[in-house]
Amino acid sequence: MSTNETMTAVNEIASKGIERMTTLSELNLSFLERMAARQMDALNLCIDHGVRVMKLVNESKGYNEIVKGQVEAAKDLSERVVAEQSRRPI
Fold this sequence. Notes:
Helix content: over 70%
Number of helices: 2
Number of strands: 0
Structural class: mainly alpha
Distance between the termini: 49 Å
Radius of gyration: 26 Å
Order of helices and strands: HH
Largest sheet: none
């Protein structure tokens, strides 16, 4: 192989490597964007649940009402998490 052929081969290999790395980085970016969106959705569900429980504690007239409300809130949260997971898998 001559020097020109060697340099051409090296340039082709480098170009293909850069293309593959670019494709991989785009794939990683897409995945990270989806994960960040899912994490924000999960955070919003948790914040909504926390607000609901705090409101329940403030408005409840007794311990039994608080416990009953917390059980209902936890059930609702778990149902929303499962629904979100089945609606938008990663």
